[in-house]
Amino acid sequence: MVSHLPYDINPHANRHHFYEENWKQSAAKLLLQKGYAQGKLLDWGCGRGEALSIFSKIGFECRGADMDPACINLSKKFGCPVDQILSEDPRSLYPPNHFDVVVCLHVLEHVDSPKAVLSGLQHISKKLVLVGVPNARNFQEPLSRGVSLSKVNEGHLQIWDHAHLLNLAERHCGLRLVAWGFDATILPFFARLANIPLLTPSIIWLETGIFRQLFPFHGITCLGLFEKRDIHPPE
Fold first, then answer.
1. What order of strands is seen across the sheet that includes strand 125-134?
2. Domains of the chain
3. What is the pLDDT of residues 156-177, one digit of tens each?
């Protein structure tokens, strides 16, 4: 049970840290696959800032925003400006149509009103919103009986599958799906084998390769690239 992201990670030494780095890399690949690599990009809830570095390297002019002062200081080491979030409403910090791309990775599950936040991100974007949230359809405990809090992050207030994320974005937040992205699909038996250090690299290779291709909608993250649409088209 984790209430806050760690301030220091090592993707090479910790398999779970690898997954956290991997969904950021997967988000960048999704943008590149759709031909987007330039313009002003905001990472809303940037955490330690690794995504700022990833998006900067592919060509974006990046800016971060976070509520945690420690994360703001950590993010600044990547050379991008980082703002303090004082309100869950992005419109309180930035004007409308200010960024070409707004990124929000594993943040919406922590906020009181995901609809208000995502609508606000749509408002400050002129083109795209890239969203990643935990996937309710993951395979990690498909045969478990009963309900337990043992594997639930205490800071997560909600979770989505792809259909419900699509519903939130398209029917309620003024967005339209461009494409889904996929990070890694974990299968329980193989996940237990991954705890054996000699097998860990091979299991990760399977999870980010064959398993992801076979079961793309059962991955760790629901990752969606959305374009902004006019909610009230002119008559």
1. 82-84, 61-66, 40-44, 99-105, 125-134, 221-228, 175-181
2. 15-141+148-228 (3.40.50.150)
3. 889 999 999 999 999 999 999 9
